[in-house]
């Protein structure tokens, strides 16, 4: 029997709808997951959506999840606040087949991106508020660079 594929999910902070999806994935048992958060946040001003968001997190989960110790001590605020030296070690220990990034406007996602590229692992990048500018509707600079570099431009 072959082993279950391993997927690492990388987030800057807990988001309720992803927590519910991750719990369902874990409960079905077809994949092995590990979730890494740069911060534990209950609410913050989301620059991508331009409003304050209060997350109503499902606190009773059974999937493996960890707030990274070094970035978890800092408040969520901009790119560098999520930088984590712990993430590289955590990914080496878990050895995922796939790395899922929820966005790419924070340092924690760039560290995971670099890890996946260095280890030749499949990378899934998802963006929302950090992808498009709310005022122009165009790709933000980080999304433009990644699009040109890895996707042939959008």
Oligomer: single chain
Q: Which strands sit side by side, in order, in the main sheet?
A: 5-2-1-6-7
Count of extended strands: 7
Note the overall shape: globular
Which series of helices and strands comes N to C? EHEEEEHHEHEH
Overall pLDDT level: 77
Weakly predicted, low-confidence segments: none
Strand content: 15-25%
- Biggest β-sheet strands, sense, barrel: 5 strands, parallel
In helices, the fraction of residues equals: 25-40%
Q: Over all CA atoms, what is the radius of gyration? A: 15 Å
The structural class is alpha/beta
* Number of helical regions: 5
How far from one another are the termini?
A: 41 Å
Task: Describe this entry's structure for a reader.
- By secondary structure, the chain is α/β, with parallel strands linked by helices.
- Helices cover 32% and strands 21% of the residues.
- It contains five helices and seven strands; from the N terminus they run βαββββααβαβα.
- The protein has helices spanning 16-28, 69-72, 86-94, 107-119, 141-150; strands at 6-11, 32-37, 43-46, 51-54, 65-67, 98-102, 122-126.
- The strands form two sheets. It has a five-stranded parallel beta sheet with strand order 5-2-1-6-7, with helices on both faces.
- The chain is globular.
- The mean pLDDT is 77.
Descriptive keywords:
5-stranded parallel sheet; 154 residues; 32% helix; two-stranded antiparallel ribbon
């Amino acid at each position: 029997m072959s082993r279950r594929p391993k997927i690492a999910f990388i987030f800057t902070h807990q988001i309720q709808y992803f927590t519910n999806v991750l719990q369902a994935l874990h409960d079905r048992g077809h994949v092995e997951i590990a979730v890494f958060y740069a911060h534990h946040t209950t609410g913050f001003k989301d620059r991508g959506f331009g409003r304050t968001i209060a997350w109503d997190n499902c606190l009773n989960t059974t999937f493996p999840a960890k707030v990274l110790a070094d970035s978890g001590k800092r408040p969520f605020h901009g790119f560098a606040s999520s930088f984590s030296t712990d993430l590289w070690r955590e990914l080496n220990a878990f050895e995922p087949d796939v790395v899922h990034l929820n966005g790419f406007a924070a340092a924690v996602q760039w560290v995971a991106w670099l890890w996946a590229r260095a280890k030749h692992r499949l990378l899934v990048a998802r963006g929302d508020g950090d992808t498009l500018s709310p005022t122009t509707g165009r790709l933000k600079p980080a999304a433009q660079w990644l699009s040109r570099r890895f996707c042939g431009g959008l």
